[in-house]
Amino acid sequence: MAARPAAAPRPLPFLKGVRVNRCKQRKDSHVAEPARAMITGQEMEPRAASASPAAEMCAEVLVGSEAYAVLRADWQRLKVLQSTSTVFQSPDFLSIWAKHFAAGALDRTLRTIVVRAGGRAVAIWPLQVTTRGMIRVASAAGRPFSQYDGMMLDPGCNQAEAVAKAQAALVSGERPDLLRFSQLRADNPLFVHLLSRFEPVESEGAPRAEIGPDGFEAYMKRLKPKLVREQRRRMRMLEADGEVGFAVSDDAETASDWLAKAIDMKRAWLTATGKVSTAYVDERTNTLFRDLARQLGDATGQVRLVVAHLTVGGEPIAYEVGLVEAGKFFLYMSSYSDRFARHGAGNVLAQLVIEWCAGHGIQVYDMMSPRSQHKSDWKTSEVEVHEYAVPLSRRGEFYLGFVVRRLRPGLKRAFYALPKPVRSRIAKAALRI
């Protein structure tokens, strides 16, 4: 683990007076050495379906990716209880992510904070604590691939106290200079009970289509009539070029094959438009994508990676790549052929995927942030998504003021001010997918 800064971070004002009761690791615990509790204290005896709101709470911090397997049963229970949970906080996803983004010595940067009440886990918070120069930063595990940050929390416990205990354990045990969260949903307990009182760095929205119990046809009737007419026109244009086909991968081999083609198509589009993203300039994203397809591509797991494609005359012209969990489809990546852009191939595929979701018991088609005109056509609601950087020391204040608020936005503006051909050449050289 990297050396900690000499200067102790200042406590958050709302944490003053919060006492961290430290959970004692049980003698029969199966936590392996890399995931041992760093903080010890009160004995734990978990039982009961949901912890009593009045039960005394304690916190522990587990180190390393083995915590994802050790806590899996508690984690899955909390995911069932918390209706706003997302696939990016699942132990299945994080275990695969860690193999690529926290391999080797980086495994020691992973922290999982567990809050227990009456011995039972009521909160799980997956984090990564890294040192950037002289700045110690606590951020969500799963970045930069993950699209949502957050905490798992039992709705039956005293949520405000649980979040405060988790935060106090992080601050006192890890001494970060900065808390950094890039994609925090407004319906996540971490936002509701902690970060909502701070000013976000940026705010966006995550559109979603909630299909509803009445099925796909009823959902389509809730959309604008103009969109429905436009979809018919788009389909006729595609059919004029050949037979239109649609399919969704149902095994790991097919998912892997189609994913590779979807990535090729995405790379071509990013290069042509001169666009880049943090995830797509990292080679580890490429290997993680392929590992997710191999491990989650079959149709039998709790978390599944699916690839849908649209074809015309047997030629693939558009793809959607999503992660499915607990009746929700998280649209991670879409790509389409420039040759069929004017045909609205992306919109045609979106409708077909939503219809497929409805037929497979998936009620939410989450298009995630940022907003776009394409997404607004299909949305029935959206969730606000915020970026936060909360300083806990003078170093953290410097990082927020200079790097987060000035340097990074300035570099982004400078890049997109370049002529498109120049951006395209830079994108071609920088992309690693």
TrEMBL record:
BioF2-like acetyltransferase domain location: 229-375
Superkingdom, natural source: Bacteria
Residue spans crossing the bilayer: none
Name of the protein in its database record: GNAT family N-acetyltransferase
